[in-house]
Write a structure and sequence with these properties.
14% strand; five-stranded mixed β-sheet; alpha+beta; Transposase Inhibitor Protein From Tn5, Chain A, domain 1; disordered N terminus
Length: 295
Amino acid sequence: MLGAGEAEKGTIRPDFNRSIFIDFAGARITSDAGFLLMREVNQRFGIIGSGCRHLEDDRSVYHKKHTFEQMIRQRVYQIAAGYEDCNDADHLRIDPALWLALDKGHEFGAGQSVMSRLENDILGTASGQEALDEMITRSSDALLKWKSKKRLILDVDSTKDPAHGNQENMAYNGHFGKNCFHPLFCFTSDGDGLAARLRPGSVHSAHGTLDLIKSIVIRYPKKFKLFWLRGDSAFADPYIYKYCEANRITYFIRLRENAVLTKLINPHLTRPVGRFPRSGIQVKYVDVEYQALYH
């Protein structure tokens, strides 16, 4: 790495050009210079630092070699660089680019054991979840400001996060047929993350969706003139409909198939015999009247 180590033994400077030097200190070589770019983005928008204010550091002075912000930075940067496993910290902690990204000078980063305690004892708590929410929100604030759109489209969906052992809130999900967590996500129409909730594996897909939507709408009441909500049939919930209608949010939610809808749409499902026309598949829009009764 240029700019370091030229005074140490083993450095060679050719006489024909003294601005060039050869350094054989392999420990100062990095293949992950992207850590520095991630630090620049984080520092410019204050993403991780904003979330750390929710965390109270009650560790003893002997266990504060790494600050909460440095540890969270390291975990986030590692995941973003493709090192998802905490075990990767044991060899990345000596990477010179990571030292700079963590603002640790020439001190090593945290190892696997510290990263595991971070996830379980710090970020796994209620205040830790609040801190992570704040970081996601802060990052989306900067992104939405840069894109400068007048309409915010909220795409809600859930997914499975398979788990093993006897982890807290892990449960069997009949739909996925797995022991898992069942997190809920909200993205923009461009695929940018707005919010996330880690939930037990056994909850319904729409569990907690209304609170998630409310937090986003409350945060951006003046920035966006229009809000749209999109979701699959799992989110066909009358409480979600009522909230959207009361707050003038346009919603597009797929209805579950039933005998009445099938009867209404069947006459329109026929297609001409033979191949599709050269112009491509034709799309036909029809209006039907349907009202579901809730008891």
